[in-house]
Write a structure and sequence with these properties.
Strand content of chain A: under 5%
CATH architecture of the domain at 57-191 in chain A: Orthogonal Bundle
Largest sheet of chain A: none
Shape of chain A: elongated
CATH class of the domain at 57-191 in chain A: Mainly Alpha
Helix content of chain A: over 70%
Radius of gyration of chain A: 18 Å
Distance between the termini of chain A: 43 Å
Largest interface: A-B, 43 and 43 residues
Oligomer: homotetramer
DNA sequence: TATGAATGAGGCTTCATTCAT
DNA sequence: AATGAATGAAGCCTCATTCAT
């Protein structure tokens, strides 16, 4: 196990707080109150607040990575993998909106060099995964080859992110899964050879 | 004029601070120090800090809007308009990276309802502009019609945003304009009928 | 003239501010806004804020003193003088409630030794006036002699002050003049021989 | 217990500060210094400064109420109750002058609607207690009946308050208990049938 | 493991006042 | 006579963190 139960409690509570009002809402006071114990107790489980944030990032990175690798291995063609991934992600965000602000948190941690680098590294890693999937798709003939995998990955991730962001900003007042379907039917036309 | 000179000084200094380390770096103390006067002096020019942030958002909204409308009217086909816009934006961000964190600041203001709505409204407005441009492109035959303008706008804005974000996170260690060209050649293939 | 016109404007505006929300509401900013000019302008007319407060105290001391001396000389018996005075005062407070907080401001200026002494001196002076009136009443046979003038003055002033205070605290939601009449009919029974 | 020990420390220190120089002297900085810990520590014991003030008011309201009810039940006739009460109050103020500014603080909180109402409500409650005592005195024949209990209460409380106020303004340079006796002998003559 | 108490640093804001124009 | 700009001091409050119990 990477985290103790108590640490998982904290990660979950922190996710909720960030999901509600952004990182500025993640104070030790709010966090302790959300969990239902004292602020001091937090320091039994994590060295400091930055380690908590860092752990949150790791936690969701792993969680999403695991599912994505499952999808990648199960699906046959590259284009199908992308379809399954987008389906999973929109579903995940839809059922747990709080994690959106963490998964797309790149701009939130400029403050702190170490967190900023961690966040950048996670983004690069995700991009590489998508590029590999797209490359396979180009090789298996399901994805067009006249556009480089890097640009297709940018288009895929970028439009996905923006759609999810709009959903958050609208206070989730449209059906994200439906919007995801519509986006995918557009992306599919764009990606197919 | 919408703002006094001193207000423009403050907006510029605030932009710099946010550009460097995010909104958490925009404190009254840092801001006053950046401008070179006392914290109290800020309050002669703006009612409070939220009004400063709000003004920054308005300022860059207007600035970018003006140029975009110029481009929209000058260029002939829809696809050319998009090309000019992307060129302008990458150039703008490249020459003044600080504004990136403001123009893409949507996640930064969840804290504050009013700012959050302002930021959402700006995003919606931008999306509509892109949709109109795309619609014209579809009517003039320069842009494909088998994908709805809304989805094309999402693809356009999303991939543009993600590219710029990666540049920031990489500490601007690649040539944003060149990357913009590459992205555009991909998008062009995607958009053309 | 003791004060210039501009100084009288300032005294009047300050009275209004204090009347509305107490001395804590008398800030240079509020005062300037109330008058309709700049804060800096205040310093053309008064050396500083304490001098303004001091002037307010003097102004109303004089104003009330003048009327009271008129009453004292006009009326015949001591008891009639008291009646006229109480009538005048309740009428004055009723028509201009703002001055109540100034005329009864003794607890407001503890902060500042000089103002505190000024306020004490005004109170002592008022008390002496009432004692003289009562003494005359005792001599002319209209006021009982078995209680010392000092105690009768305390009873008179004290009950008057408390009645007016209650009126202010109730947001002036009863008829002060009527309540003054009722109080006076009680006091008259108490004072008469 | 209504308050923790630390809260009582804070109430006591605040009382002292207000007693010395009025509410304007009750700043978080002064208060923390008086107690001997940091400003931040205050906020572990009270939510904010207004709650501190509110607590002070409650504390002394209760304290005085308890004693007064004891007196009311012990004494026989109405007039005797009044005598005991005045004796107790002058003694209390004499031995702890700081609380005077709190018990007579009605004009100090106009600034704040909630405090202002609290202070008004306390005053009304006290008035009612005195009116009840007086009513009993009128029924048991010890207090005159030709003046309404409301007016007698005003006379009683008003003259008491003014006497105490004069003592404070004079920097306590006369013997308050002795002055209380003198006042009472006057009031007794006034109240007795 | 947990907490109550405490704190230094810093947050935003208002205060009365000054000064050049 | 008046003002716009500025300021040092101070206001209230929250932050992340520590430590003794």
């Amino acid at each position: 196990m990477k985290f103790t139960n108590r640490q998982l409690d904290i990660i979950q509570a922190a996710t909720k707080l960030i999901g509600e009002k952004g990182i500025q809402n993640l104070t030790t006071k709010n966090l302790a109150a959300e969990i239902g114990f004292s602020e001091a107790a937090l320091y039994r489980h994590f060295k400091n607040k930055n380690v908590i944030i860092s752990s949150i990032l790791e936690y969701y990175k792993d969680e999403i990575k695991d599912v994505m690798f499952g999808i990648i291995q199960d699906s046959t063609t590259g284009i199908l993998k992308l379809e399954k991934i987008i389906e999973f992600l929109f579903n995940r965000f839809s059922s747990n909106p709080a994690i959106i602000m963490i998964v797309f948190a790149e701009t939130s941690f400029q403050n702190d060099i170490q967190l900023s680098e961690q966040v950048h590294s996670i983004l690069k890693q995700k991009k590489m995964v998508f590029e590999q999937v797209i490359l396979k798709g180009q090789n298996d003939g399901s994805i067009r080859m006249d556009i480089q995998k890097e640009q297709l990955a940018t288009i895929f991730m970028g439009s996905l992110r923006l759609t999810v962001l709009r959903w958050r900003l609208s206070n989730m007042n449209f059906d994200l899964n439906k919007e995801g379907d519509i986006l995918w039917s557009a992306l599919a036309k764009v990606f197919i050879k």
